[in-house]
Specification:
The complex is a heterodimer of chains A (371) and B (299). With 371 residues, chain A is α+β, with helices and mostly antiparallel strands. Chain A contains ten helices and 19 strands. In chain A, the strands form four sheets. Chain A has a six-stranded mixed beta sheet, with helices on both faces. The radius of gyration of chain A is 25 Å and the shape is elongated. Chain B has 299 residues and is mostly helical. Chain B has a domain of 190 residues: MetI-like fold. In chain B, 75% of the residues lie in helices and 3% in strands. A two-stranded antiparallel sheet of chain B has the order 1-2. In chain B, β1 and β2 form a beta hairpin. Chain B is globular and about 70 Å long. Chains A and B meet through β6 and α3 of A and α8 and α9 of B. Chain A: It is an enzyme of class 7 (translocase). Chain A: It holds the Pfam family TOBE_2. Chain A: One of its GO terms (cellular component) is ATP-binding cassette (ABC) transporter complex. Chain A: It catalyses: ATP + H2O + polyamine-[polyamine-binding protein]Side 1 = ADP + phosphate + polyamineSide 2 + [polyamine-binding protein]Side 1. Chain A: Belongs to the ABC transporter superfamily. Spermidine/putrescine importer (TC 3.A.1.11.1) family.
């Protein structure tokens, strides 16, 4: 990604406070930095109240920053009203104008600027064609389904090719099937248009599927920025690990460091020996293990694998795989998804039987933890 | 034996009959009498002669030949003035209520409800008393002139009462609530997110107003205009208190014919003309609405 070279949006040290109705000050943004490159699909991901919508609305201009800088295409935008920013938004509620036809809705940005009639008709037609709604110019928004309204809202926002498109949880009102179809279409559309997208969602699956980069937010802070796979495989902290995908976080502590090998003791059971780079004696850590990283039998060199003992609490067949809930010897609850249960393995998975789960040492991701 | 369908029909008839009776007895029958009277000859000492007599309308519209009745253009002038004053009243109430409705709709709920209560407060006191208060304010020795003179701003009392301005002031004053409530209803329904969408797509405040706010609140404006225009046109209390003999409206004429001149047929003819004018306006409005609805359906 060339986002470092000439970013479409640059946000530096953004701070925004809110006052709740009870009078408490809430920091919606607490020193957020963000840069979005041309033609990049960036997703702001986080639980509700994490600041993602506030961040989006500061870019569109409906919220102003208490402090910090906002540049769009290199121009400072802090004092520029929403209607003079080269940015359009696809709203969560779609916000189509109910009194205007689909054609007039899509043509709104052009009408406001007084684009000539022939060019307007051509561009409205092209935008509707692009979202698969060609020929429906004469309809009214009330006559369309939710999915169709979604497409019209999209066409309306791209009709004059803004530098940047902001999408505020646009798919949250659609049913699952339609949502998945729209995810792919949005991604294709973004590629085709070459416009940068900033997409807000609380749905981690959506974020992983569509994004070039994901910005994980919580409590007004950026928790991690990275490609979907980075974020999934190497979460920066316990929050990201817990928010993205299913995870087991085991508390551990570095007991000793010698000859480049650190020994970890903790909830994983047997002491774990890992390369000691960057680790210090006494340091508290979390060991992240994804459910699908467990095996029933040691798949190779036992020296390169760790083992976890426990008692099976529950086993659920989820099609192809078994989801096992294991109460480990150290008292933590482990969720594992294991494959290929031969007859013997099935017996091992009965609730109450003791089980040893294996994992590759290099799959275990270490996260700095608090004691 | 009553079938289910018959029972339903009887029940419907039972439910509708009180309303039908009241409207029939107190609205349709008097209206029919008025229509009949407007075509009868006025009796010498009030009452009517039972002969067909088109000259009641002739006096107003111009076909009275002078043998029985004189055509006098003053009636049309008064009708025209009534239209003018009613139209200006609509504009003034609109001017007062439209911005106020936006302001009220943005207030926190408790203040909003309090404002709505204040709007309906005038209905708790008598209309005559409220209008007479304006007489006390506007007359030459009234509060306003006395204050201005006391401050030394004017030497002689201003000619405030018994002018078209005074009538307009009074009509605007009494019809503001009628304009406010329908407009407020449509303003409150307005989805603020649409205004954000409009700004987001590049529209300035002025453009957002004309392209989004105005068309979406137009039904409220239309409803308010109609329910202010119709009673304004026929109003006679305000012009008789604040307009005096100088600013007569068509309602005053009707009142005079019935109560003072005791020429019921002529009064009935005037009333019929007002009603015809109002109906014409409503018809145009309904056709305009109907056409919009038809266009909608055709899409």
């Amino acid at each position: 990604m060339s986002h470092a070279n000439n970013p479409v949006v640059e946000i530096r040290a953004a701070v925004k406070h809110y006052r709740t109705p009870e009078g408490h000050a809430v920091r919606a943004l607490d020193g957020v930095d963000l840069s979005v490159g041309a033609n990049e699909f960036v997703t702001l991901l986080g639980p509700s109240g994490c600041g993602k919508t506030t961040l989006l609305r500061t870019i569109s201009g409906f919220e102003s920053l208490d402090s910090g800088e906002l540049l769009i295409q290199g121009v400072a935008m802090n004092q520029v009203p929403p209607n003079r920013r080269p940015v359009h938004t696809v709203f969560q509620s779609y916000a189509l104008f109910p009194h205007l036809s689909i054609g007039d809705n899509v043509g709104y940005a052009l009408d406001v600027r007084g684009v000539a009639r022939a060019e307007r008709r051509q561009r409205v037609g092209a935008a509707l064609e692009l979202v698969g709604m060609g020929g429906l110019e004469k309809r009214k928004p009330g006559q369309l389904s939710g999915g169709q309204q979604q497409r019209v809202a999209l066409a309306r926002a791209i009709v004059d090719r803004p530098a940047l498109l902001l999408l505020d949880e646009p798919l949250s009102a659609l049913d699952r099937q339609l949502r998945q179809a729209m995810q792919r279409e949005l991604k294709n559309l973004q590629h085709e248009l070459g416009i940068a997208f900033v997409f807000v969602t609380h749905d981690q699956e959506e974020a992983l599927t569509m994004s070039d980069r994901i910005v994980v937010l919580n409590g007004g802070h950026v928790q991690q920025v990275g490609a979907p796979q980075d974020i999934y495989d190497r979460p920066a902290n316990a929050f990201v690990a817990g928010f993205i995908g299913e995870s087991n976080l085991l508390r551990a502590r570095v007991e000793s460091c010698a000859d480049g090998v650190a020994t970890l003791v903790g909830e994983q059971g047997d002491p774990l020996r890992l390369p000691s780079a960057g680790l210090q004696v006494g340091q508290p850590l979390h060991i992240l293990l994804r459910p699908e990283q467990f095996h029933l039998d040691c798949p190779g060199d036992p020296a390169a694998h760790g083992a976890l003992d426990g008692v099976v609490e529950q086993t659920v067949f989820i099609g192809k795989d078994f989801e096992v809930s294991l109460l480990s010897a150290t008292g933590s609850r482990i969720k594992a998804v294991v494959r290929d249960a031969s007859r013997q393995a099935l017996q091992r998975l009965h609730p109450g039987s003791s089980l040893r789960l294996w994992y590759a040492l290099d799959a275990a991701h270490l996260i700095a933890g608090e004691a | 034996m009553l079938t289910a369908e018959n029972r339903a029909r009887w029940r419907l008839a039972g439910l509708l009959s009180p309303a039908t009776l009241i409207i029939g007895l107190f609205f349709v029958v008097p209206l029919a009498i008025m229509a009949l009277y407007s075509l009868l000859e006025p009796g010498m000492y009030g009452g009517v002669e039972w002969t067909f007599y088109p000259d009641n309308f002739g006096r107003i519209l111009g076909w009275a030949d002078g043998s029985n009745e004189e055509f006098d253009v003053v009636y049309l002038q008064i009708l025209l003035r009534s239209f003018k004053l009613a139209a200006i009243t609509v504009l003034l109430t609109l001017l007062v209520c439209y911005p106020a409705a936006f302001w009220v709709s943005r207030q926190p709920e408790r203040l909003r409800n309090f404002c709505l209560f204040l709007i309906t407060l005038p209905f708790f006191t008598s209309l005559i008393v409220r209008l007479y208060a304006w007489v006390l304010i506007l007359r030459p020795t009234g509060f306003l002139n006395a204050s201005l003179q006391g401050l030394g701003l004017i030497d002689a009392p201003l000619d405030l009462i018994y002018t078209e301005g005074a009538v307009l002031l009074g009509m605007t004053y009494i019809f503001v609530p009628f304009m406010f409530l329908p407009i407020y209803a449509s303003v409150e329904k307005l989805d603020r997110r649409l205004l954000e969408a409009s700004a987001d797509l590049g529209a300035g405040r002025w453009q957002s107003f004309w392209r989004v706010i105005f068309p979406l609140t137009l039904p409220g404006i239309a409803a308010g205009s109609i329910i202010v225009f119709i009673p304004s046109l026929g109003n006679f209390i305000v012009p008789s208190l604040l307009g005096g003999a100088r600013v007569l409206m068509i309602g005053n004429l009707v009142e005079q014919q019935f109560l003072a001149a005791r020429n019921w047929p002529f009064g009935a003819a005037l009333a019929m003309l007002i009603m015809a004018a109002v109906l014409l306006f409503l018809l145009l409005y309904v056709r305009w609405q109907g056409r919009a609805a038809l266009k909608e359906a055709a899409r």
